[in-house]
Amino acid sequence: xxxxxxxxxxxxxxxxxxxxxxxxxxxxxxxxxxxxxxxxxxxxxxxxxxxxxxxxxxxxxxxxxxxxxxxxxxxxxxxxxxxxxxxxxxxxxxxxxxxxxxxxxxxxxxxxxxxxxxxxxxxxxxxxxxxxxxxxxxxxxxxxxxxxxxxxxxxxxxxxxxxxxxxxxxxxxxxxxxxxxxxxxxxxxxxxxxxxxxxxxxxxxxxxxxxxxxxxxxxxxxxxxxxxxxxxxxxxxxxxxxxxxxxxxxxxxxxxxxxxxxxxxxxxxxxxxxxxxxxxxxxxxxxxxxxxxxxxxxxxxxxxxxxxxxxxxxxxxxxxxxxxxxxxxxxxxxxxxxxxxxxxxxxxxxxxxxxxxxxxxxxxxxxxxxxxxxxxxxxxxxxxxxxxxxxxxxxxxxxxxxxxxxxxxxxxxxxxxxxxxxxxxxxxxxxxxxxxxxxxxxxxxxxxxxxxxxxxxxxxxxxxxxxxxxxxxxxxxxxxxxxxxxxxxxxxxxxxxxxxxxxxxxxxxxxxxxxxxxxxxxxxxxxxxxxxxxxxxxxxxxxxxxxxxxxxxxxxxxxxxxxxxxxxxxxxxxxxxxxxxxxxxxxxxxxxxxxxxxxxxxxxxxxxxxxxxxxxxxxxxxxxxxxxxxxxxxxxxxxxxxxxxxxxxxxxxxxxxxxxx
Length: 661
Prior knowledge:
By secondary structure, the protein is mostly helical. Strand 6 and strand 7 form a beta hairpin.
């Protein structure tokens, strides 16, 4: 089958009676009318890290009558999406919404950057969440009707247009998962004006505004305590670096990081000549691979050679395999510690991924998040410090026995004719924790569990300690998914406690975070400084106008954060007087000061102070109190007292009681 039309769908197509087109091709595997949507693309690097289950929806699984699972009509809340059951009509409504979300997400998107097509995992997750929610709606409706009319038989929902706002409100209280953000987005989409009348010939009974009044269960914010303690980071880094250095040293391969002490690994017998053992082991793995392909089933013909390997090198091939597996985990740990990649990024690194970019060695791969599936691949870079280059060298050697070009992969052999695959998320996470267990000789961190996102937090924390600034951190963690010279993305100060480490001073005009934008522009946020009153009035007028146009407060803040700040952050506040001002008579007035050297943001009428500057003002008050009490500085006491007075006034304006300092 082919698409009904070669041109992309538009919002006008939704109004047609033939929408959705039943033979529209969703992927190389499926069209709209298929009972099983398989949305994966075998050629897409950005989908490599996802399991097949995350890329497919089997609609038949959720229909009443499928097998003999407990259903919502038996008053059982589904504990998994696989247990949820709804009517055919509900399935068709969910299918329609998911189709629009997949192929035309801009219909539902907020103002700003639009994407042409949603990624399959997003749509699959949305479908599952909606099936579970509407099965819960069936349950609460059945209970409500039974309470007032016991003898009245209950008829299950046949369309989302039958669901009331009260049904949603009751069902969300019993919804078993924390999919709040996704459900909120989906329910808003159901109420979108462009889909009016498309659900079984009718519209839903709620509006987008109604959804704002619902309470959704959402995951708890990621705990910043998940950042690795310094001692643990140091232990893992040192141990993994030593493992890598020992392998390269023994194999007589070039080492980029000469600072790591190298000797033969304690896991190998002292008499072993590793270059010879390694080549023998590579030959054994290759011979077994070819023999397996010849027989058409997994087999080995190297029994005698394996015995000879043990006799000659003092270690069995099984133990040597265990050693190589541990080395591979050490390499993965180093890449995790020093790149801050998402797991989907790890799966893009292949043999030969170290390249010179503008004279600097870089780890080159493909970023998946925030990038369209059809965007160019193999163009995203991470700085490759020497130990990372050594880790990649080791993984490239290991690929000689795995026959797998993916650096983050299983240690087992890829059979001839089999498609190489990167390691799964579970396998990667398990590998990291196995390495932690082996490296933690004192069991100091026996209760600790490592995950890829924790590695991102930890790297951000380390970069913050190095005071490299938010621009660099944003780029390293790939929040900058435009060109490096473009506008940074919405940098989250939560990563690695960056905000708590006072990196606000490193923020330039173009990389202001959403937190800072909210503190500056939100009409409910307290501000201080000489220019506070005028700015407070201007932002209220601006917000009132935007709200009258139909914008929500979050949308306004998002847009302002993306546009950057009109001010320069001078440390204890923002300065709005850094440009020449054109007067009424046509003449120009230079900026009122030259910045921090003559700046008093507490009094200057060009200054605005927000809550992100509280820590600086606390320091100003505390430090000047110390100086004022110093008898050797008595001649400047009046200046210190003036600074204290200004600081305490600013803190009070920001809602802070100076007496608590």
